[in-house]
Amino acid sequence: MTSSNTAAPTPDPTPLWQPGADRIDRAQVTRFHAWAAERHGAPRPVPGDPAADYAALHRWSVTEPERFWQAVVEWFDVRFTSPYETVLAERTMPGARWFPGATLNYAEHALRAGEDPARADEPALLLTDEDLLQRPGAEPEAVSWAELRRQVGSLAAELRRLGVRPGDRVSGYLPNTAHAVIAFLATATVGAVWTSCAPDFGARAVLDRFQQVEPVVLFAVDGYRYGGKEHDRTATVAELRRELPTLRAVVHVPLLGGPAPVDTLDWADVVSGGADGSAAGSTEGRAAEGASGGEALEFTQVPFDHPLWVLYSSGTTGLPKAIVQSQGGILVEHLKQLGLHCDLGPGDRLFWYTSTGWMMWNFLVSGLLVGTTVVLHDGSPGHPDTAAQWRVAERTRATLYGTSAAYVMACRKAGVHPARDFDLSTVRCVATTGSPLPPDGFRWLHDAFHEGDGEDMWIASVSGGTDVCSCFAGAVPTLPVHIGELQAPCLGTDLQAWDPRGEPLVDEVGELVVTGPMPSMPLRFWNDPGDVRYRESYFETYPGVWRHGDWITLTSRGTVVIHGRSDSTLNRQGVRMGSADIYEVVERLPEIRESLVIGIEEPDGGYWMPLFVHLAPGAVLDDRLRDNVKRTLREHLSPRHVPDEIIEVPGVPHTLTGKRIEVPVKRLLQGTPLEKAVNPGSVDDIELLRFFERIARERAS
Length: 701
Prior knowledge:
The chain is an alpha/beta fold. It has a domain at 570-700: 2-Layer Sandwich (GMP Synthetase, Chain A, domain 3), CATH 3.30.300.30. It is built from 24 helices and 38 strands. The strands form twelve sheets. A seven-stranded mixed sheet has the order 5-4-19-18-20-21-22, sandwiched between helices. A five-stranded parallel sheet has the order 7-6-8-11-12, with helices on both faces. The longest helix is centred in the N-terminal third of the chain and has 17 residues, at 145-161. The protein is globular, with a radius of gyration of 25 Å.
């Protein structure tokens, strides 16, 4: 492990950025704090000391979670059709029970801004793509709140006609377009469970996910555009249809203009009508008048802990974990995160570059919950050039722009001047996630916006995970920003750094743990009898305490430093990927006996992902084989799965029970001495590890 993973940060009391008094006073978290002190017993704010204010509010939020979360649902006017009996019936992890007795509907909250006639014609969604960015002056396509409600209502009625019931799974093989948002919200409207994959996933990667949850409806594109090219997906969709026997219907989305295959429904037909409620059957729902023409949207009311969606882990140790999160848990967590931490509300525009295969898409769509316009960009992050994402922010007049740390570093390396070359005057915050933003990234963003007279630019590096579909630490609009550090743990998140004995650490590197339940923690994993895999994933190291798999430092001034993964999950451009997917594809090739893939966070913000291959007898690692490996991974999985280097090794090390050793190899490649990286008695051939130790020395020199 390199020094960046083991050493605490050097204290630097001088912040890179300090919010002004006006920003602090206007911030929603400031107003929430004062209100919660009056109504719910939160500590009273300290005039003139926002750091002490936030520290006290955070401490209250984790020591009295019942009062805090009651304050959140009241502040954001959560609509409970049936009242809750108590806020938190069980504090145990896993097994916490939030708001028992309550019923509600996520989609009702996501669409309620459109109930206001004054806002009905304002944009709920703004749509951009690669073609638009190459047309000077072209405006993004807008979908109004009224139109979004109409299309969701029509599609929800169609799902009911298809027999979709609460708890059924509905899947999307869709890019980041309005189709995905509409299909997801219609699914939530009827109480069904959404799940999605981006269309750059190959058939095997999609089936490894969707076959677990057995969807009854599939929304699928005929292809997508990326990097200036069209990518046909008709053969992949045909394979999905063959291999998903539970499907009752397939909805064809003709993104490339292809004809609908036989026995499929056409997208235009299923969203063309109005939701008249007649197809709702006997479902218990709440009717809401549409803002355009009086159609009734029928929101099926479900228990607080009813599943909203299934997200997927990377699949490092086998099939991806199918992570189930609840309607109510996601609703209240995202209201808190987007409203109090991101400081978003009506009048704001949220752009976060993402795909439908990453949790940030789910988080982005939740911007609708706080009445914010959501920006959807369909395309490559760097097409037609590296500055593409800044063009999106300019064209859409975004107020919060989110991206990956890797993209920021790519812009720095390419000499992009965002604030000089683009009108980003509406952008109040640039947020990054996916991997830690290096110190040079903080400095570059700060200097780039000073260059364009953007002196009040808030840089928010945030960190969380698919597992909770939210942030553990990051954005706080009232606190200063220090180079290389996240501003603070999030409200309601009892974030700590622990040593191997379970003792909390300050100003030292430890394991990221959460010692109290969060509403958006998984209900369970799909098809995990007895919650065995769920418990092993988070609660095995420290029983009853969530261990996430990151190295972090909590500083004595309350900030957080993320040092990277403490396990072997691959994390490229913010997308977590599983080594098991790669092994399955690569080892189908007759020349490859076995393989090992490792992801390394580098000090300059880069990411090195080598693939080590143990060849079959007589095979040679030449350019032909290298090209074949890369092509096979690209076709069967995605371009992100293609390694940076392919290196021949004399063998792959294993544990005594036959499992590939990934974490110790990663530590060796990061510079950790062999005797500290692994217990020699647990390895089948210690000499194989010495090979990786030599590679690390050669790279360092």
